[in-house]
Amino acid sequence: MSRVARRPGLVVLACLLALSTLAASADTPPGRDRARTYLMLRVVDALDLSDEKALQMREILRRADDRRLDLTQQRDGLETKIRGALAQKPIDTAALGTLVSESHAVQRELAALPEHTFTEAQKILTVEQQAKLLLFRRDLQGEIRQAIRRRSAPATPTPAATVHRGH
Asked: How far apart are CA 136 and CA 149, in angstroms?
């Protein structure tokens, strides 16, 4: 029997999460909403969260994702400015130094985001759920890496798609 069948509340929670996501994120693109909902359902299932804990965890993950998007935009903007500053002749080293410092601070904050998110989650999760979250996070990272590799790998033609020509 699947976990979903054993936990009928999970279906209700999924509906509540989907509805609250739609209501709370009018400015969030639909693809991002779907990704957030999918991640949340995976977390609820992996950690066997109660409905109350699931809603708390959803908020933690939403804040982390919003912060990651904000920091990524800042990083991209700073990198554009750095490229522009490097293209100037002569290079304004003081201005470039400021941009480098700002960019490094943003990158450091991006790198610390998973740790910050875990620290927030620790406040609401049992030790067992924390352990499951650590394992889930690593498994999910592996899945994401595999998906990226599959997408970036050149497509190999199947025998049916190969056209044989005689000379």
From this structure: 20
User: What pLDDT, in 10s, does the model give residues 66-117?
Assistant: 999 999 999 999 999 999 999 999 999 999 999 999 999 999 999 999 999 9
- Give 45's contacts (C-beta < 8 A, 6+ positions apart): 3, 4, 10
Q: What six digits make up the tokens of 103?
A: 């960019």
Q: Shortest CA distance to 36 belongs to which of 65, 67, 11, 57?
A: 65
> Is residue 90 reached through a cis peptide bond, with omega within 30 degrees of 0 on the bond before it?
yes
Buried b (16+ CB within 10 A) or exposed e, 66-76: eeeeebeebbe
Tell me the C-alpha distance between 58 and 44, whole Å: 9
How many CA atoms are closer than 13 Å to the CA of 55, on its beta-carbon side? 10
Place of tokens 């798609």: 161
